[in-house]
Amino acid sequence: MLVFLGVGGAVRGALAPSDLFLLVAVLLCGLGYAEVGALARELGGARTICWALRYALPVTGAATLVAARDRTPASTPPPARDPVHG
């Protein structure tokens, strides 16, 4: 991805630390994809997905709580629509 951006002229100057973080993230995702594929052969697809969701729950749950804290739900319902005129 970084090579594509560099060849296309989208990157000017030196690489930033965020570019290296992106590269490491892509490499780790590829490694995780390969490991889960091997695990799915052993456990089966459904069990592998269930275990992956179980392990991801603390991270996704915390992220959901942080996001929900910043966005309060609307306290008033939307206006009622006229059933005849829409």
Descriptive overview:
The protein is mainly α. It contains three helices and no strands. The chain has helices at 2-7, 17-43, 45-70. The longest helix is centred in the middle third of the chain and has 27 residues, at 17-43. The protein is extended. The termini are far apart. The model has no long low-confidence stretch (mean pLDDT 84).
Keywords summarizing the entry:
86 residues; mainly alpha; extended
What is the 3D shape? Answer: extended
Number of strands: 0
- In terms of DSSP E residues, the strand content is under 5%
Helix content: 55-70%
Structure annotation, total helices = 3
Structural class: mainly alpha
Give unreliable regions as ranges. none
- The radius of gyration computed from the alpha-carbon positions, rounded to a whole number of angstroms, is 22 Å
Kindly summarize this structure in a few lines.
The protein has 86 residues and is mainly alpha-helical. The chain has helices spanning 2-7, 17-43, 45-70.
Write the layout of secondary structure elements.
Layout: H1 2-7, H2 17-43, H3 45-70
Helix pairs in contact: 2-3
